[in-house]
């Protein structure tokens, strides 16, 4: 049994690399999922920011800001996730990569945490300090994990990149 050298391509990886990775949901050739994830990412961190400002100032204004940013993070995450799910299921070149599934699982957990964060704040059943702040920190950690795997898809696998024949 011989080992595959550095100059030989793994036949399984070669087949995966041959699969189409062009976006199924795009506007003017730009993948909608890549354009939409910025909103929930920003809003998850804005919720943590509102929590920290409330912790520092005890001003109830920041409680209201946290409810709005947590809700907006949840709903924009649902929208970005819906588009990402369509891409995952519809495009064989995306579906065949492990990083795609790791990204999807991390993103689903993130959306669930964002929904929990918003729901508990909206219902008033949570003490922001320390529980709401803790959930916001966990949401930011999950954002990093989902973003890490999304970045692997872009930078390591070239998913969502538009390369013209001039390049």
Using brief descriptors, characterize the structure shown:
single chain, 167 residues, mainly alpha, two-stranded antiparallel ribbon, 7 helices, 72% helix, elongated
Report on the structure:
It contains 7 helices and 2 strands. By secondary structure, it is mostly helical. A two-stranded antiparallel ribbon has the order 1-2. The longest helix has 30 residues, at 61-90. Residues 29-160 form the DUF2231 domain. InterPro entries: DUF2231_TM (IPR019251).
Number of helices: 7
| Strand portion | under 5%
Based on secondary structure, the structural category is mainly alpha
Radius of gyration: 19 Å
Helix content: over 70%
End-to-end CA span: 40 Å
Molecular shape: elongated
SSE ordering: HEEHHHHHH
Lateral arrangement of strands in the main beta sheet? 1-2
Low-confidence stretches: none
Count the strands? 2
Q: Round the mean pLDDT to the nearest integer and report it.
A: 88
In short:
The chain is mostly helical. The protein contains 7 helices and 2 strands, in the order αββαααααα.
């Amino acid at each position: 049994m011989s080992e595959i050298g550095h100059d030989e391509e793994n036949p399984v990886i070669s087949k995966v690399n041959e699969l189409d990775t062009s976006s199924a949901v795009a506007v003017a050739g730009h993948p909608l999922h890549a354009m939409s994830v910025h909103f929930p990412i920003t809003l998850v961190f804005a919720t943590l920011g509102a929590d920290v400002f409330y912790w520092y100032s005890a001003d109830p204004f920041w409680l209201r800001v946290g409810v709005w940013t947590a809700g907006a993070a949840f709903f924009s995450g649902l929208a970005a996730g819906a588009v990402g799910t369509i891409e995952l299921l519809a495009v064989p070149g995306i579906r065949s990569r492990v990083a795609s599934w790791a990204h999807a699982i991390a993103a689903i957990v993130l959306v669930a945490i964002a929904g929990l964060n918003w729901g508990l704040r909206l219902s008033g059943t949570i003490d922001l300090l320390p529980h709401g702040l803790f959930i916001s920190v966990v949401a930011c950690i999950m954002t990093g994990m989902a973003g890490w795997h999304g970045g692997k898809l872009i930078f390591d696998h070239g998913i969502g990149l538009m390369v013209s024949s001039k390049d």
